[in-house]
Each structure stands twice: as C-alpha cells, then as structure tokens.
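Example record for the data management plan.
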Amino acid sequence: MSGPLVCVVGSLNEDTTLRVAALPRPGETVLAAASFRAPGGKGANQAAAAAVLGRRRDARVAMVGAVGTDDAGDRSVAALVDCGVDVDGVRRLASSSTGTAVVVVDDAGENHIVVDAGANAALGAATVEDRVRALSPALLLAQLEIGLDCVAAAARAVPEARVVLNPAPMPAEPASVLALLDDVDVLVPNQAELGRLARRPTPGSRAEVADCVAALAFPGDVVVTMGADGAYVVPRGAPGRHVPAVASEVVDTSGAGDVFAGCLAVELAGGADLVDAVDTANRAAARSTTVAGARVPADFAG
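Corresponding structural encoding:
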C-alpha cells in the first residue's frame, strides 16, 4: 500500500464478552446465555477498523502499544496482523500481562465494560515517542486507555501530523485531558465526555451540545458522537452542523465508537472533508453494530 500512514497509539486487550437478557442492576446476579473471547482494546479496535475500512483508500495503519509475553498477547498481535496493521511498534513486556476486558451485552445491544489495563499501564512515554517519531505518520489517533504521558509524548513526536484524540475513557477530573488539547487538531468525544471537558452536565440535545462546544473553546475541529442521533460536527472556525445517524439492525453496540474513530482517521488522512468523513464514519459504525463483538472482523465489508 502506498497511501497515507495512520498511527494509532493506544491499548491492546483481550475481551471476554458475556451475552445477557438484561444488564445487571447493582447487587444483582444474572446468568449469561453465551460467552466468547476476542481481541480488543480501544486502540487496537480503532487500528483494526482503520486498516479494514481504509483499504479502499489504500491506507497504511501502524499500532504503537504494549502487550504481555503471554498467549493473550500473541493472539492480540496476530489479530492485528490479520487486519493488515503494522505491529512493529507493539512492545512485548515480560513484566506485565496483556490487558483484559469483560464486556456484558444485553439483548438490546447495550453494554457494560470493565477493563484491567495490564501491559497498557506499563507502556512508557519515551518508548512511544521514539516509535511514533520513527513512523512519521500523516495522522496520529489516540485514546485514553494508556497513560496521558504516552499520548502527550506521541503528539510531541510528530508536530507535523494531524492529531485526532478520542478522549475515552474520560477521567473524573478533566484537567489532565484539557492540558493535552494544545497538541490536538480533531477532538472526538461523546456527549458525556464533552460535558466533563466543558465542566457542564452531560448535554442531551443538539443545542446543549453546541453550548458545551462553545464553552470548551477548543480551537480545532470537534466531532461529538451522539449514538442513535448521529454526530454534531464543528469544523475549525465554522458553524456546527448535525450529521444524521444511519439505521441498522442492532446486535451489539460495543466497539461502534471505535469503528467510528478508526474510519474517521483514515478518511481524514486520505484528504476527505471533515463532514464527509463523519458521514462515512457514521455509516461504518452503524454497520458494525449488526455483528457481535467490539471489533470489526478482517473480512468486514464496511
């Protein structure tokens, strides 16, 4: 492939997904109807989506992160290779186990997710900076399942690259994330994350989302994902606009946000207009909810 290089800096996990009729309430035990194990992690999910969905743009995708020297690490790395991701930037750490996640999905496709960071928490900022600099990507995509120091180091390493930040999972106190935004070009929060960043309640309507974006006063592009209501896009220096969602036969919503971010990244790296890129990402995310699991398969049509 000869297209632009997208570098994803983030987490690699192994997911155990449990299917239940309804998500458990506090203190309640429910029985799973089925379970399965699959590679995951927000970073790796986004890298896989970028590679699979970026084929039509001849995109190249590289992953920077860490796994253990365990079987889960082997499976995580092999799954990315199957999707066409360059994994030379993934460290193998004997001192840590590969990150794990337990995903509980109900019959409506809604989910609860609990993550044990494992090797993701042991990834060092100096290593990230060196590996990202060596890759010299056109676009850098990051999330917050690794240390904030690693995200900051990645952005510093390639000041000429377009930096896209999906601020998930958001810490309760947003100050450390706000400090990163000087090095970010495109911010991609959901409504709850936007509310925390703007230090306001979670916005419900598009008008409230617009007010939160204005209060945040972020000078770059903002793309707020709104689930079934699509996305609200505020291009740099331009009025905001709504990009509608696409209806789908929902099986599992886990990972849809990662598919959106990965698709958005390769579209932007390929030169797409921001609004057009969001529309394409909306469609890919909707299609991803029609299959089980938090990651698109290597043969996903997109």
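Summary line stored alongside the record: The chain has nine helices and 13 strands.
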